[in-house]
Amino acid sequence: MPLAPVNDAVTITELIGNPYPFYRQMRAETPVVSVKAVNRVMLTKAADTRAVKDDAETWSSDDPDTPMKRAFQAHTLMRKDGEEHLRERNAMMPTFTPKNLKTLWGPAYERLAGQYLDRLPKDEVVDLFPALAGPLAARILAEILGLSDATDDDMQAWSQALIDGAGNFGGFDEPFERVDRAHLAMNALLERRADFYRANPDETALSVMVNADDPIEWGQIVSNIKIAIGGGINEPRDALLTVLHGLLTNPDQLDELKRTGNWGAAFEEAIRWVAPIQVSSRRATRDTQIRGIDIPKGTVVMTCQASSNHDEELFENGHLFNAFRGRNPHQSFGSGPHHCMGTHLARLMLGKIMLPMIFDRFPNMELVEPETVVWKGFGFRGPLNLPVRLT
Amino acid sequence: MPKITFISADGTAQTVDARTGDNVMQTALAQGIEGITAECGGAMACATCHAYVADDWADKVGPATGAEADMLDFAACEVTPSSRLSCQITITEELDGLVLRLPETQI
């Protein structure tokens, strides 16, 4: 059988600017394709990305050839398989039980959302990226992780440093220097907070991990927290900005949603339309095949859930935002053992709490100069700005 | 080969072949049953493979317990004593003829 065809035409700049036309072309012409710009075999069809993530034996999450270990100063659970992965994942799970979501984190988010919305200026243009979406995502995460004395600015800066470090395939000095400084600050905070939680246990992630009957090693507790910092701010931030953009540019849908209150469907559609995490890699543990293409053992494939979410076999006009689409089998939370642990939290915070609240308070919110909204990102993607006027 | 019947929320029944050793969720996905989403692929992390076991099968299948019962709290539709996460029900010859009702939505 043949190896994957090679595409050496698309550039990383194009992918960062807007990967969707490239994905559409690949789905139609070469759904399994070796892309020189990212040095990976990209999988662009929904059936393939799903099958890979669900088969953790054939497809390992450990890709040793990336800057991630250097950036995180650790081998994190995101890159582990099997029992080892499950042990670390389970160490954090108690924080995310349905009961905690219902009794602690939902109410906390509702309170914080109200406060952050109260602070927004009226009758002038305000950019919701720095004024709302970023800081609120940072604040609730700090509460849930057990880092309540971290400022919104620190949380956002650390998160970006981790992401930039993990994405530093060019090996440049600046991102590694910046993330190393972030580690110093995070490590100091974590040690201080861990001492506090040994005496005052609660349901936060740091507390449940530190106080467990059979705790995982301190180094892994620290790296679990850092994965959550790296992975738990950009996504809710981008998801909120994306859904607001989708709704404000589709006023007929927004009107209908105000009538029916089915905000959950709007949230699901937003993250399908522009997946906050666009791609994730896996490594073949044995020789295998996808769609008649040989994938030799050791090949690193890139599952492009951003593309799967637009797969013509599953979605009609997938490039359009349509909150009334009905069946929406998107893959933005992944699938298989590494399925996003924040899934239910995200659905609760944005779908059930924020969307009804923001449109109840600001029913006439208006997107100002929509042509100035910039979308960016290949690994992570969302609007860089969302200028609105609130009345 | 055991047979399983899925009754969707609108009352339509579909009877499909199942393989012993597979779980009910895998069977639903393999046979194209639309009412099971199975977002996490069987890792018991999502509650989108929720199904109601028909009353006359309750004893043979048993109720949800422990972590499965906890995870069911995330189910989108009402959870009853018949509720199970279908990824946690393993098909055996004894379950030939099993009937499950599907909720209106999984998300």
Cα gyration radius of chain B (Å): 12 Å
Strand order of the largest sheet of chain B: 2-1-5-3-4
Shape of chain A: globular
What is the overall pLDDT average of chain A? Answer: 95
Instruction: Work out the count of structural domains of chain A.
Output: 1
Q: Mind telling me the CATH class of chain A?
A: Mainly Alpha
Low-confidence blocks of residues of chain B: none
Instruction: Count up the helices of chain B.
Output: 3
Number of strands of chain A: 13
The domain count of chain B comes to: 1
Which strand-content bin applies to the residues of chain A? Answer: 5-15%
Shape of chain B: globular
Specify the CATH homologous superfamily of chain A: Cytochrome P450
Class inferred from helices and paired strands of chain B: alpha+beta
Question: CATH topology of chain B, which one?
Answer: Ubiquitin-like (UB roll)
| Lateral strand order in the biggest sheet of chain A | 1-2-3-9-6-4
Fraction of helical residues of chain B: 10-25%
